[in-house]
Amino acid sequence: MPDKPETGLRGLVYVAVGVAALGGLLFGYDTGVISGAILFITKQFSLSARMEEIVVSAVLVGAAVGAALGGALTDRFGRRKLIILAGIIFTFSAVATALAPSVTWLIAGRIVSGLGIGVASFISPMYIAEIVPAKVRGALVAVNMLAITTGIVVAYLVDYAFSATEGWRYMFGLGAIPAVVLVVAMWRLPDSPRWLIIKSMVPQAKQVLERVRTVPDVSREIADVQQSMQQQGNGGIAGLFQHSVRMPLIVGLGLAIFQQITGINTVMYYSPTIFKFAGIQAAGTAILAGAGLTAVMWCFHVLAIFLLDRVGRRPLLLVGVAGQVVGLAILGAAFKFQQLASYKSGVAIGGLVIYVSCFAFGLGPIFWLMISEIYPLKVRGAAMSAVTVVNWVTNLAVAVTFLSLVKVLGHAGTFWLYAVTGVAAWIFFYRLAPETKGKTLEQIEAHWRTGKPARAL
Ligand code: BGC
After folding, report:
1. How far is the CA of 298 from the centre of ligand 1 (A)?
2. Distance 432 CA to ligand 1 centre (A)
3. SS3 279
4. What is the 331 CA–ligand 1 centroid distance (Å)?
5. What angle do CA 261, 267, 272 make, to 5 degrees?
6. Among 120, 186, 230, 398, which residue's beta carbon has the most beta carbons within 10 A?
7. Which atom of ligand 1 is nearest to the CA of 121?
8. pLDDT of the residue at 360
9. Is the pLDDT of residue 6 over 60?
10. In contact, 174 and 94? CB cutoff 8 Å
């Protein structure tokens, strides 16, 4: 199937991408904001270590549930309405957590915020992938990852700004601003043309495509989607069990699990300690160093945006994961051989920077990108929802096992264990990751029906 119809794109596409990426920004903000806020919450409510852990991880539980519910809801109500729903949830939870009179209220508010994160985390990339042309899909879906990290940086900076006054309520409350913008702006945008087609709203889909493409006739693109849809079996959860969906499901699950068990969130969470270890002592400076690190990630996301549609997904994924392994090996060594005192700080920070940079152009954006590309339209909601749930559950599992791992294996051993999972990830991706660069979503769907291996795409 040639991708001829998808040649040009109009400015509205960029607006749609920018607005949908606000979902990513809120995902980053709401996950990042707790790192600074928790210090003052613990103090105000005199939390035990156990309660502190619950307050921090409540959001992950909510995210897993939100991702689980989002699949069926998006099939039914569309991508646009779900993004609006996520925006409403973000607004509500920002206000509710800012006003929390008790810790129980706060935990409930953080779970609700997690529901929004779970929904936005996969519907924003899905919406972008379905509305943009194949040629630029890698770059434009990766904008969402850039937005996630921007949200994390902004959260760190807001935390820093309010830390002197211990203003944790403001830290949460400010999240309402982008959330309201998301709701209002998304309201005015069209739904995904592919979802409209699946709902037999072809005239509406045509209208949307005419607004976002410069080509004179969009009927060819519509015909491709319809034709591809007719060749697909069941939709929804039942559809996940068909033979042709097995391989993309395995690939998506691998991406979801490996993105987390290579330790990204513990390394990021742990970065202030690594900085301390490297001689950066003051809490304020450590927060700024954390923001600096995420700024480095930001630069490598930009590199990914530039390269994904040029060199492709596979090379970036394989080089990125290999780099993460190297970063983790160095980080482990810095902790193991502390007697290398004079340059240990440089070594630790070097390992950390290599690790996060490689994540930032590889597994970070590519997980969200590939899962929005590899599933047939009819099962896309259910499949993306399922692998996103697995991503959030793995995230939670890594978070709750980290401290015990450090107790048993030490810091060095823990980072080296993550390095070993990185090696397993590399082998898995080398054998199974498909190259989706430049292919229309319908061409990718057609590939799975041939029964050929993923790598043959
Ligand atoms: C991951 C998150 C992580 C974030 C860091 C995302 O791709 O899914 O778990 O916190 O990247 O920027």
Report:
1. 12
2. 22
3. coil
4. 20
5. 165
6. 120
7. 8
8. 98
9. no
10. yes
Asked whether residue 74 carries a pLDDT value surpassing 80, the answer given is: yes
Backbone phi, then psi, for 273, in 5-degree steps?
-65, -40
Ligand 1 center to 181 CA (angstroms): 23
Q: Tokens 């930001």 label which residue? A: 298
Query: In the predicted model, is pLDDT for residue 2 greater than 60?
Result: no
**What is the amino acid identity at position 120?**
A
204 close to ligand 1 (CB < 6 Angstrom): no
| Best-predicted range by mean pLDDT (1-10, 116-125, 292-301, 406-415) | 116-125
Residue 264 near ligand 1, beta carbon < 6 Å:
yes
Ligand 1 atom having least distance to the Cα of 260: 9
pLDDT tens digits for 223-276? 999 998 888 888 888 889 998 899 999 999 999 999 999 999 988 877 777 777
Whether 149 lines ligand 1, by a CB cut-off of 6 Å, is: yes
Q: Which atom of ligand 1 is nearest to the CA of 148?
A: 12
Nearest protein Cα to ligand 1, atom 6: 364
Q: Which atom of ligand 1 is nearest to the CA of 365?
A: 7
Q: Say if ligand 1 is within 6 A of residue 364 CB.
A: yes
Ligand 1 binding pocket mutation candidate from 35, 117, 259 (most atoms within 8 A of CB): 259
pTM score > 0.85 for this model? yes
pLDDT of residue 5: 44
Q: Name the residue at shortest CA distance from atom 8 of ligand 1.
A: 364
| 303/179 Cα distance (integer angstroms) | 27
Where residue 236 falls (left for φ over 0; alpha for ψ -120 to 50; beta otherwise) is left
CA dihedral angle for residue 175, residue 180, residue 183, residue 187, rounded to 10 degrees: -160
Contacts of 206 (CB under 8 A, 6+ apart): 218, 219, 222
Ligand 1 contacts CB of residue 265 (under 6 A):
yes
**Domains in the chain, please, with CATH?**
11-456 (1.20.1250.20)
pLDDT in tens, 118-147: 999 999 999 999 999 999 999 999 999 999
pLDDT in tens, 377-414: 999 999 999 999 999 999 999 998 988 898 999 889 99
Instruction: Tell me the CA–centroid distance for residue 218 and ligand 1, in Å.
Output: 36
What is the per-residue pLDDT across 20-62, written as a single tens digit (0 to 9) for each? 999 999 999 999 999 889 989 999 999 998 899 899 999 999 9
User: Does the pLDDT at position 1 exceed 60?
Assistant: no
